[in-house]
């Protein structure tokens, strides 16, 4: 008697397969689990190539598989408009909803919004500047002394989680760097999921998290200006900034499950559980991050270097230590807007999909 043949369940979206168009680029993987660094590649050359879209699509799939990529050689010849174009195309070429585009920061109308180096502002560009952060530190000196040692756990986040449709790709270019400090870290959401026991995977898959940022609404009301809307998607018009996202989501490009919204800067509460259970879940997720540093890629920034990452399958954390050194850290970031996050019950973890051992 023959055995009963069953087809594997079909995914909501078929994973994309990478081509060979960027295989000629020199690279080194940052760790076996996460990150890829291109020491010599030029994004400008990629854009100018006759098969630019093919190369950008293969780069996008690489980013979704590796979590984050670094371009180390200074990308000085790349304009801000080209940075925005690349960020937008990475999503467009990998099946993002057609009506979505680049994110617009809710507080773009704030008069303290930082300009770029040429003095202009752009609603699709978020400027990072350590001098502004130093001023922030100066105003914070009168706050009551901390009773606990410094805890940078809250730095971990995925971009624009406060939106109904959060960011898919983010592209940060560092224009100037201090002699040390200001590193950025990325942790693999795929690996965090894979390191859970099966019962705990099932438990976290049953949860959603509310990702509230009430500060945007209150800042606008206090400053007397309006919140930007829409913000990269017709669905990102809500002024409450409190969407509920799945704690575990499926990456639409790879089809792999990722621990997405269990902890960090934008997660205000795990839904439906008690406050102590909320605390336990967050502590547990934070413990997975801090006790599995082989799942983390760390970027020591050099002038002109770039990082492009998938917010679907990584969390990242800035290192706020540049106030300790002289020198300004300035960067410009563009972010795309992806789909409403979903968990596809037919999807699997990365290790299972690739046939890798569990640990
Ligand atoms: Fe960020």
From TrEMBL:
GO CC terms, sorted: cytoplasm
SUPFAM superfamilies, per database record: Clavaminate synthase-like (SSF51197)
Start and end residues of each TauD/TfdA-like domain: 29-320
Listed InterPro entries: AtsK-like, TauD-like_sf, TauD/TfdA-like
Keywords: Dioxygenase, Iron, Metal-binding, Oxidoreductase
Superkingdom of origin: Eukaryota
Gene Ontology terms, MF aspect: 2-oxoglutarate-dependent dioxygenase activity; metal ion binding
Cofactors (names): Fe(2+)
Sequence similarity: Belongs to the TfdA dioxygenase family.
Protein name (record): TfdA family taurine dioxygenase
UniProt organism field: Apodospora peruviana
């Amino acid at each position: 008697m023959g055995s009963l043949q069953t087809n594997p369940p079909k995914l909501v979206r078929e994973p994309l397969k990478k081509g060979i168009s960027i295989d000629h680029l020199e690279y080194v993987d940052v760790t076996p689990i996460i990150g890829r660094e291109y020491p010599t590649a030029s994004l400008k050359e990629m854009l100018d190539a006759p098969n630019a879209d093919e190369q950008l699509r293969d780069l996008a799939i690489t980013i979704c598989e590796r979590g984050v990529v670094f371009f180390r050689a200074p990308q000085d010849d790349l304009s801000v408009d080209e940075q925005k174009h690349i960020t937008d195309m990475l999503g467009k070429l990998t099946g993002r909803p057609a009506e979505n585009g680049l994110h617009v920061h809710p507080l773009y109308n704030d008069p303290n919004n930082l300009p770029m180096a040429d003095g202009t502002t752009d609603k699709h560009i978020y400027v990072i500047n350590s001098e502004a952060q130093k001023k922030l530190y100066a105003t914070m000196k009168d706050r009551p002394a901390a009773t606990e040692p410094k805890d940078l756990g809250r730095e971990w986040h995925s971009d624009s989680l406060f939106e109904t449709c959060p960011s898919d790709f983010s592209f940060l270019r560092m224009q100037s760097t201090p002699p040390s400090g200001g590193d950025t870290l990325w942790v693999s959401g795929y690996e965090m999921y894979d390191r859970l026991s099966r019962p705990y995977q099932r438990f976290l898959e049953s949860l959603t998290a509310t990702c509230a940022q009430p500060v945007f609404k209150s800042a606008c009301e206090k400053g007397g200006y309006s919140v930007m809307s829409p913000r990269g998607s017709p669905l990102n018009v809500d002024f409450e900034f409190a969407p509920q996202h799945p704690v575990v989501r499926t990456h639409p490009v790879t089809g792999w499950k990722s621990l997405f919204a269990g902890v960090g800067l934008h997660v205000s509460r795990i839904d439906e559980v008690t406050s102590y259970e909320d605390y336990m879940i967050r502590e547990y997720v934070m413990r997975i991050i801090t006790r599995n540093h082989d799942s983390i890629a760390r970027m020591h920034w050099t002038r002109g270097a770039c990082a492009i990452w998938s917010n679907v399958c990584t969390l990242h954390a800035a290192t706020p230590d540049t106030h300790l050194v002289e020198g300004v850290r300035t960067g410009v970031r563009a972010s795309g807007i992806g789909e409403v996050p979903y968990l596809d019950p037919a999807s699997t973890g990365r290790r299972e999909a690739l046939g890798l051992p569990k640990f």
